[in-house]
Write a structure and sequence with these properties.
The complex is a heterodimer of chains A (112) and B (112).
Chain A (H helix, E strand, L loop, with lengths): L3 E4 L2 E4 L5 E7 L5 E7 L5 E7 L6 E2 L6 E5 L5 E5 L8 E8 L7 E2 L3 E5 L1
Parallel strand pairs in A: 2-11
Antiparallel strand pairs in A: 1-3, 3-8, 4-5, 4-9, 5-6, 7-8, 9-10, 9-11
Chain B lengths: L2 E4 L4 E4 L4 E3 L1 E4 L5 E7 L5 E7 L5 E4 L2 E4 L9 E3 L8 E8 L6 E3 L3 E6 L1
Parallel strand pairs in B: 2-12
Antiparallel strand pairs in B: 1-4, 3-9, 5-6, 5-10, 7-8, 8-9, 10-11, 10-12
Classes of the chains: A mainly beta (112), B mainly beta (112).
């Protein structure tokens, strides 16, 4: 039982490059989330998926897209990376919306 | 909209000192309240939670009581250890949208 896994752990991009952050959970959870963590700003919700087949914008969705590939997997895509997207990205899941969230170890992304 | 405000850190204490980290919230409806802890280089993990007014959440010697009259959920521990050094996040879940809202986090450093 691995919980929530994220790949990659670290990534450096140049401005304008694209990439996809992968997230998978093996707990049969319905809801999944993507957050970014910046110093002094806590965690901010980028997108979430209340259940398989649905996705909704969070607080800071601009510049990102998501795909809920199946119940286990929820990916985050940066189409054209910008330095303002330098951050630590966390994926999380919960049995249902509003319940305890389980977090992955994070992806540290630097955009030059 | 809903929000969470927690005391700014860092908080530096000696081992066996009493800890209080203040957290207040604004919300419509009746949110669930949470404290999460983040150790260096890791994702967040749930420390304790309370789902209704006057509930007390507790875990690993930490406690917090859901106070509707003061809209607060302060975290306390009677005797901190060096191993408690981490960043602590207060959060609420919106009962209408099931989105989480996190505070900015409070860094705790415990000295031996």
């Amino acid at each position: 039982n691995a919980g929530v896994t994220q790949t990659p752990k670290f990534q450096v991009l140049k401005t304008g490059q694209s990439m996809t952050l992968q997230c998978a959970q093996d707990m049969n959870h319905n809801s999944m989330y993507w957050y970014r963590q910046d110093p002094g700003m806590g965690l901010r919700l980028i997108y979430y998926s209340a259940s398989e087949g649905t996705t909704d914008k969070g607080e800071v969705p601009n510049g990102y897209n998501v795909s809920r590939l199946n119940k286990r997997e929820f990916s985050l895509r940066l189409e054209s990376a910008a330095p303002s997207q330098t951050s630590v990205y966390f994926c999380a899941s919960s049995v249902r919306g509003g319940g305890e969230q389980f977090f992955g170890p994070g992806t540290r992304l630097t955009v030059l | 909209g809903d929000s969470v405000t927690q005391m700014e850190g860092p908080v530096t204490l000696s081992e066996e000192a009493f800890l209080t980290i203040n957290c207040t919230y604004t919300a419509t409806g009746y949110p669930s309240l949470f404290w999460y802890v983040q150790y260096p280089g890791e994702g967040l993990q749930l420390l304790l939670k309370a789902t209704k007014a006057d509930d007390k959440g507790s875990n690993k010697g930490f406690e917090a009581t859901y106070r509707k009259e003061t809209t607060s959920f302060h975290l306390e521990k009677g005797s901190v250890q060096v191993s408690d050094s981490a960043v602590y996040f207060c959060a609420l879940s919106d009962t209408r949208t099931y989105k989480y809202i996190f505070g900015t986090g409070t860094r705790l450093k415990v000295l031996a």
